[in-house]
Amino acid sequence: MTVSVNRLVLWFNKTGSPPNFDRFAARWTPWAFATAIIFMAAGIYGAIYSVPADYAQGENFRILYIHVPAAWMSLFIFVVMAIQAFIALVWRIKACEILAMSCAPVGAAFTLITLVTGSIWGKPTWGTWWTWDPRLTSELVLLFLYIGVIGLHNAIEDRRAAARAACFLALIGLINVPIVHFAVQWWNTLHQGSTIRLIGPSTMDPSMMWPLLATVIGTKFWFIGSLLQRARAMNLEQESGKDWVRKISESSANEA
Amino acid sequence: MTLTPTLFASARAQLRRDLRLVWRRRGDAMQPMLFAVMVIALFPLALGAESRMLARIAPGVLWVAVLLAGLLTLDSLFRSDLEDGSLEQLLLSPVPLAWLIATRVAVHWMVTSLPLLLLTPLFAELLHLPGQLMTPLLYSLALGTPLLSLIGAVVAALTVGIRRSGMLLSVLALPLFLPVLVFGSGAVVAASQGLPWSGAIYLLAAGLALAVVLAPLAAATALRITLT
């Protein structure tokens, strides 16, 4: 058991060593962004031109093709961040610290997009920009938690200690989100029930479905690209002064 | 021969030291109470002194006042110990760090929240809280305030290494305080509407039981992360 875990840690440390990680991220970032743009463009084209207007909500339901993928990503990224944070704290792997910390701004951006698009959708549909419903409130708390992680990471001088403290906060936050959701469920209000279920038949018409799938896949790839790019930048920043970083900066200076 | 103090001896020593420190600066210890009174006084002045409206917002206002008073004192939980170096002694001591943190949190609760709890009937009178809501309010505060102190200790431990941590500490702590506020204040609001309120109290009690065990451990981990 311990032997296999040690081997796993060794493998992580090898592929996660700063120069290897830099090569990996530099290689895959453009591909991830390209895939993301293709899928998102297709999805948004479908959402605007090919999907018929909803009979109850008219045209303004089309914003859900941005809102729903962003909402999924906001939670998904938090879970990814917490998993990375857990690995970083338990096995002290530096690459995971960097990856976890690079998740936070991307996740915060998706959470903000979710809140803003949700509000814009809510005004004509519910007649209000905001309601204190469990889902809205936990999304808002999620944004605060992301901001807290980013703030803590920026506030501590020592980079390793900062990353580890913020990782710990991310884990606490992961416990907090469901508790907040449950707590606010008391004031159950206007939010409509979910229309897409992972288990059981979906109540969304198949013709409306494919653009959503496309934007969902697109946002996943966008996250991967953005994560790799941010992690690469943070990695280079922390390793600045090392020999391999100097080589990279010299070679790129020569090209320019 | 090893000179490892027993758990209770170490807790007693720390309690005595912390309480003596508080006693030497009795004026500072009064501040959370004054602060809570001020916050409570702001609401009738801002919203008008109509007694029916005050009675309706009283549970929320009282809870928020107590929560903010606790929040403002969180920063001092480990700060002075860090500055005079005794925090490092705590980290190095043979007694489990979580145990020492638990006693420290107990002192924090006794000094900031217990006086507020005792003054709650007075505060409630200032806001014309109906008499039959006193019981749920006291139950929810008695269970909720130690919970706030315990959760706050984890956040204070995470931010102890930061020089100007005031604002950040609030930003980190408030999302974690939210469920406690919802259930604590929610119990009183439910009681005011004639609904059963014991459920929220039981949930607070369950949360407190969990936090008593887990929060000192989490705070000890956080302290080790930020100070090494």
Briefly, what is this?
Chain A is mostly helical and 256 residues long. In chain A, 79% of the residues lie in helices and 0% in strands. At the A-B interface, helix 5 and helix 6 of A face helix 7, helix 8 and helix 9 of B.
State which percent range the strand residues of chain A make up.
Answer: under 5%
CATH class of chain A: Mainly Alpha
Structure summary, number of beta strands of chain A: 0
Rg calculated over all Cα atoms of chain A: 21 Å
- Largest sheet report of chain B: none
Order of helices and strands of chain A: HHHHHHHH
The count of helical stretches of chain A stands at 8
Return residue spans of chain B where pLDDT drops below 50 for at least 5 consecutive residues.
Answer: none
Q: Pair with the most extensive interface?
A: A-B, 24 and 23 residues
Structural class of chain B: mainly alpha
Which bin fits the share of residues in helices of chain A?
A: over 70%
Number of helices of chain B: 9
What is the tally of beta strands of chain B?
A: 0
Description:
The complex is a heterodimer of chains A (256) and B (228). Chain A has 8 helices and no strands. With 256 residues, chain A is mainly α. Chain A has one domain: Four Helix Bundle (Hemerythrin (Met), subunit A) (Up-down Bundle), CATH 1.20.120. About 5% of the residues of chain A have low confidence. The two termini of chain B are 29 Å apart. In chain B, helix 7 runs antiparallel to helix 8. Chain B has one domain. Chain B is mostly helical and 228 residues long. Helices cover 85% and strands 0% of the residues of chain B. Classes of the chains: A mainly alpha (256), B mainly alpha (228). Chains A and B meet through helix 5 and helix 6 of A and helix 7, helix 8 and helix 9 of B.
